[in-house]
Amino acid sequence: MSKVLLISNDVIGMQMAGPGIRTWELAKLLATEHTVTLLTPTRTDLQHPRISTQVSTQDCVRACADMHDVVIGQGQILSRYPFLLGHSIVKVVDLYDPSPVGYLETTQPHTIKGQLESHHALVREHYNYLRAGDVFLCASERQWDFWAGMLMAAGRINPVVYRSDRMLRSLLIVAPFGVPARAPGHRRRVLKGVWPGIDPDDVVLLWGGGLWEWFDPMMAVEAMSIVGRRRTDIKLFFMGVKRPNASVTTSHTADQTIALAEQLGVANRLVFFNDWVAYEDRENFLLEADLGLNIHRDNLETRFSFRTRMMDYFWAGLPIITTEGDPLSDLVKQNQLGLTVPCGDAEALAHAILRAADDQATRQTWKLNCLATAKEFSWDRVFEPVVAWCRSPIQARDKEYTDVWNSCVGDSGSWPKHAWEYYLQRALHHYRVTGMRGLATRVISWSCGR
Predict the structure, then answer these.
(1) Same domain, 15 and 118
(2) Which of 239, 406, 411, 428 has the greatest number of CB atoms lying within 10 Å of its CB?
(3) Pairing mode, strands 70-74 and 90-94
(4) Do the beta carbons of residue 283 and residue 246 sit within 8 Å?
(5) Is residue 97 predicted with pLDDT exceeding 60?
(6) What confidence tier does 341 reach under pLDDT thresholds 50, 70, 90?
């Protein structure tokens, strides 16, 4: 049994978003066999008999680090508490949200210089995380490829690590977002016949999360305007517009979506907006809905994303209409969980909505397939490698060599300024690897221009 410290960079409470949910669920699972302390940016209103919770002040984090074997958190915790970078505590860095990519989609400073400075600062921070961490978590095989490239560039994929683990699965662990092992339960009516404007027999489409910049909720609103020309009993409900973390302002995308719905005359008639749904209450909304929407843009963030709202759709057996391009939309096709449409095509989305609304029998098939898929993503399954790793946490074996790597890449003065310097460095490399005979062969090939 280990003493595990989890530090959340987001609010954990009755109302919380993906990062908080992931940390809370991991804490509960680890607490079944480890001693767990959870630090949160604000006081939490959630309790667990085996989890000690505190607010994450600088002094608190420092004291807890001295008393625990392992710290787990998203990379930002190493920026907020930089003394952890050099601390001896074993560090698990959760990279399930590739923020350097997501940042490219967020509201930017007005000047290109400001954009570059902000982006470069974020990338530099992540290189520090990659150099400081002992093991890393990501959410999918596609993310694994992305972070493996970053780890290679940061010097963390090297002969020391590679000799003991040629597939690097003990350095970079795939641990997706998950769902509860229990089935969701419907405890109270929240939408049909209850929410003003949504009738008991309406077909309800659910937007199961926030309206962040990498999503395309305006496409969904445009599609609903098209759908409304044929049917007025199909409604779209946005579960969350205002993020529970008060330090995160409402996104421009949310403001623009609400304005578009009002402009098209569908707000509070075909399209409805809610502030945020409490974590334990979300299953009531999921179980009353008929279809789940996941509409994003065609960009780099989509390619490496892992849409946490899709997990809730699986869990509730909620058939899905999604745009293409991310790993989970591929799973929708593969497992026949619903329909996929091209990014940016509101007409195609409207057609898919009408088709799904008209075909209750097919929706039932999709529902059963979603429920079967959900079993693969239960929290105890996706986090089992993390729980197992925490039983015998060790520092990465290559940590003692990081100074060598940093001296190689950090000093621009060591870069070749002339061709002969390049060839000298390559000659030393070939001598170390192949000996004098191999070096002689290489020198001959260079002299022949090959």
Answers:
(1) yes
(2) 239
(3) parallel
(4) no
(5) yes
(6) very high
Q: How many domains does the chain have?
A: 3
Q: What is the pLDDT of residue 241?
A: 85
Find out whether 222 and 346 touch, Cβ atoms under 8 Å. Answer: yes
- Is-contact 70 4, C-beta < 8 A? yes
Say how far apart CA 157 and CA 154 lie, in whole Å: 8
DSSP 8-state class, residue 62:
H
- The structure tokens 């910049």 sit at 213
Question: Which one, of 239, 219, 222, 214, lies nearest residue 107 by Cα?
Answer: 214
- Residue 450: band (very low, low, confident or very high) from pLDDT cuts 50, 70, 90: very low
Identify which has the larger pLDDT, 122 or 384.
Answer: 384
Please choose, from the candidates 442, 435, 396, the residue with its C-alpha nearest in 3D space to the C-alpha of residue 136.
Answer: 396
Q: HSE on the CB side for 332, CA within 13 Å? A: 26
In whole angstroms, how far apart are CA 272 and each of 143, 221, 369? Answer: 34, 10, 28
Q: Are 99 and 158 members of one domain? A: yes
Say what the pTM is.
0.87
Same domain, 250 and 330: yes
11/124 same-domain check: yes
Residue 448 has pLDDT above 70, yes or no: no
Q: Which domain holds residue 45?
A: 3-178+381-403
- Give the model's pLDDT for residue 216: 95
Residues 334 and 364 in one domain: yes
CA 114 to chain centre: 26
At 348-358, the pLDDT tens digits run 999 999 999 99
